[in-house]
What does this fold into?
Amino acid sequence: MNLQIDDQGRLRHFLSVDGLNRDILVDILDAAESFAGVPEQTVKKVPLLRGKTIVNLFFEASTRTRTTFELAAKRLSADVLNININASSAVKGETLLDTLRNLEAMHCDMFVVRHADSGAAHFMAAHVQPHVAVINAGDGRHAHPTQAMLDMFTIRRQKGDFGPLCVAIVGDILHSRVARSQIQALNMLGAGEVRVVAPRTLLPLEVESLGVRAFTDLKQGIHDADVIMMLRLQRERMQGALLPSAHEYFYRYGLTEKRLSHAKDDAIVMHPGPINRGVEMDSQVADGPRSVILQQVSHGIAVRMAVMSMAMRSREAAAREAT
Amino acid sequence: MNLQIDDQGRLRHFLSVDGLNRDILVDILDAAESFAGVPEQTVKKVPLLRGKTIVNLFFEASTRTRTTFELAAKRLSADVLNININASSAVKGETLLDTLRNLEAMHCDMFVVRHADSGAAHFMAAHVQPHVAVINAGDGRHAHPTQAMLDMFTIRRQKGDFGPLCVAIVGDILHSRVARSQIQALNMLGAGEVRVVAPRTLLPLEVESLGVRAFTDLKQGIHDADVIMMLRLQRERMQGALLPSAHEYFYRYGLTEKRLSHAKDDAIVMHPGPINRGVEMDSQVADGPRSVILQQVSHGIAVRMAVMSMAMRSREAAAREAT
Amino acid sequence: MNLQIDDQGRLRHFLSVDGLNRDILVDILDAAESFAGVPEQTVKKVPLLRGKTIVNLFFEASTRTRTTFELAAKRLSADVLNININASSAVKGETLLDTLRNLEAMHCDMFVVRHADSGAAHFMAAHVQPHVAVINAGDGRHAHPTQAMLDMFTIRRQKGDFGPLCVAIVGDILHSRVARSQIQALNMLGAGEVRVVAPRTLLPLEVESLGVRAFTDLKQGIHDADVIMMLRLQRERMQGALLPSAHEYFYRYGLTEKRLSHAKDDAIVMHPGPINRGVEMDSQVADGPRSVILQQVSHGIAVRMAVMSMAMRSREAAAREAT
It folds into this structure.
C-alpha cells in the first residue's frame, strides 16, 4: 500500500519523492506555478485553506524551514500552530502517537513534521485519521522532499525540459537527506544525467545504484554540467574524522568562479541554504549571475503552497466520498 | 462580591467552579454543545470574537493547555498573543500587576492565565478593568476549571443526566487542582455519588468535607462506578516520600482491564492527559473501548470556546450598559 | 541620500528621528491620531495591511516591544512572523545580509528590527529591495524612534503645542537610545526647552551640543517643568562603576511626590517601562494622577500602526511608480 497516493491517484501525504511518480511530481510543479504569482499580488493570500488548522510539529529546531511552511500556510489563509516538541510534552514523556492522537482530537487538519529520526513522518502518516495529511519537513537522513521539489521547480523554470540536462550534486552525499530526495526527483523527472561529487568518505557505498555517476574530483564532476546543486556542509561534520577541515574542503570542493568555468556557460548554481561562505562556495559565486539560490527560496513558498493544498484537497475529497 | 458573575448573573470571569452555580455550569455545557460541531465544518471558524485580542499569559510552560486555548480562540476568529513570562519581563522585574496594566493599555480583551501560584487568576480578575475577562488555565494546586468543565461535558454527552451517576476520581487527590475542580462541578451538577480513590498519603485531611466518599482500595473505589476519572501522577511526586515508586503505584492503583471489570459494564474511563502509560493505566485501557480520553481533548476546544465567548459577550454587554 | 525619505518626500523606512523633518513627524502624529480610536471599536482591526507579511526580526529578546509591534501589525490585518535570531540561523552562521535576502525572497514586506548593534536597522534599510520597509525597534545605544514618537504623541495629547513646553529627561542619558531619540524629536517639534538630568557619570560629553540644558541636580532640573520623562535604569548599570547603587540612585534621582512639587502643578510624568519601582520613581508617582505611563503604552500601538502603514503605503506607491 502506498501511503502517499490514495486509490484515486491523488496526493494523500507528502513524505518522500520515493514512492511518488512522474505525474504527481509534474502536478506539484504545475500547481506551484499557479502559486508563484500569489506573493506578487497586493494581497498575497488565497482563501484555499481558510478555516483549516495546520500544525508545524518540529521535534528538531529549524526556524528557516518552519518559517517557509508558516508563510505558505498563512498565504493559503490557514490557521497555523507552531509546536516545538523539545520544549513541551516530550519532556512529560508523551509518546509520538499520543501527541498525534491529541492533535487530531483537536481537529487539526495537517501536520508538517520535522524530526531527527528517519521515518518519523512515515510513521505519522501510517497512523493518522483519513482526513489528516502529513507533510515531511525533513526526517533524519532520510528525506527532505519539499526541498527537492523546490529545486526541481527552480530547474524547470530556468531550463525547461529535464531531458537534456546534466545535473551535478556536490557535497556530503552520504549524510544528506536533501541529496537523496534530489536524486530521486531528478531521475523520476527524466534528467539526462545525474552526478554526485564528493570526497570518497562522504559518498555512500554503491552510490551508483541510486542512478547517478560518482566523482571525487570537482572539475570532472561539474564538467559540462547544466545545473550544479551544492549541498550544505554540516559544521558537526567538519570536526569529525570524515573530513580534514573546512579550509581543506573548500580547497578541494569549494565552488569558485574559476572552477565554475568547467561547467556549461549557462550553468546555474543552487544551494539549499544557509550557505557557509568560503566553505561550499565563495561569495562571488553565491551572489553571482549564475546563482539561483534566492529564487530557490522564493519557489520554496510556492511549492509548499502546492503540496499543502493538493494534500488537503484530496483529504477533503476523501472525506466527502466516505460519507 | 462574586468576581465570576456580574450583577446580571452573567459569566464575567472563569476562575474556578467554586463560586459559580448550577445554572451557569449548564449554560457553559449548552454553549459548548453549540460549538462542538464547528470543528467538523469545512471552514471551522465562527466570527464571534473577530477583532478581539486574547492573551495567553503563561507563567508556567504548558504547550498542551496553551494549544487548546489558542485553537479555541482562533476558531472564534480572535487574534492571539502568546506570552511566556519566564522568558520575558519577569526577568526584568516587572510585577504581575504592571504586566496586567500594560497589556490592558494595549487594549487586550481577555487574559488566559496559567500560574504556579494558587490564586493568581483571582488576583488578576480582581484588578482588571471592567471590559476585560480573565480565564484561569490552571493556578497552583487551586483550580483548573476548564479541564473540569470539559470533563463534565464529556460525561453529559456519554451518560446524559448526572443524577444517577457514581463517579470515582482516582489518583493524587491531595495535590491535584483538576480533582478539586472536578469534585466541585460534579456536586454542583448533582452527581449521585462522588468518590475519591488514593493512597492515604495522597488524600487531603477531612476529604469527606468536600462532598465525596474516600477509598484507599481501587477495587472498592470503582465498584459499580459509571465514570472513572484517572488523575495524572506528577513525576516529581513519584520521587518523593509520599509514594514508593511508579511501579508500586501501578501495582496498587493502575487501571487494567481486569480491575475495570469491577465498575459498571458501560463505565467510561477518563484522563486529563498526558497519560503515563503503565503508571495510571495500561495501554489496553487507555486505547480500549471504554476510554473517552480523546473525546475529552476534542471537547476541550468546544468548552473553551464556550467559556471565552460567554465571558467576552458579558464584558461587551457591560461596556454597552456603562455608556 | 536620505534612507528614510523617498524622492516624493514620503516615509520610506523609520530608522531614527535624526534624518527626518518636522513635517514627517507631524504626519506620523496625525496618522497615529486616526488610529488611536481603533482599539476602542468592537472589531479593532482595519484592513490596511491585509495580505502583507511583517517580520519581527529580533536579534535581542524583548517580549514587550515585540508584543506592541505584533499587536499593531495584527490590527492592521497583516500576517506577522516572529523570528528570534539568537535561537536560529545566527547559530548556523548565517550573516545578517543572507537572512535579509532570504526573507525578501519569501516576499516579506516589512522588517521590524531589534538589534544590539547601533546601525543594524540602517544597514538593513540600505540593503533591502525597494518594495521593502524597515522599522527600527531599537538598535544598540543609537535609537528607539517609535518609543520617542509615542512619547511625542502622548505629550501632544496632554499638552497640545510643543512651543511653550519645558521638558526634562531624567536618568542614564549616556547609554540611552530612548533619550537620544526623544531629544531629537523634541527639538524638531520645537519644544521650548529640553533639559537632561543625570549624575555626571551618566551624561555624554558636550551634551549641550545635542540642544539641551544639562543638570546634575534633580530639583533644579525639573524646576517648573511641564513634562518629566524618566528613563529606565538598566540593572547592569547599577552594578557598574558609573553608579554607586540603586538605593543611592533613588536617593538622588528617584522621583517622589515631594520632588515632583518642584515641577509645574500640571506637569506630567512619563516612563518607557518597565518601571523599576523604588529606583526611578516610587509607586505613588508611578500610579499617581500625574503619571501618563499607561497612556504611553496605549499610544505605542497607535504610533506603530501609523509608522507601519505610512512606510508600507509609500513602498506600494513606489512599486506602482516603478512599473
User: Anything to note?
Assistant: Residues 22-143+300-322 of chain B form a domain with the Rossmann fold fold (CATH 3.40.50.1370). Chain B has a mean pLDDT of 92. DSSP finds twelve helices and nine strands in chain B.
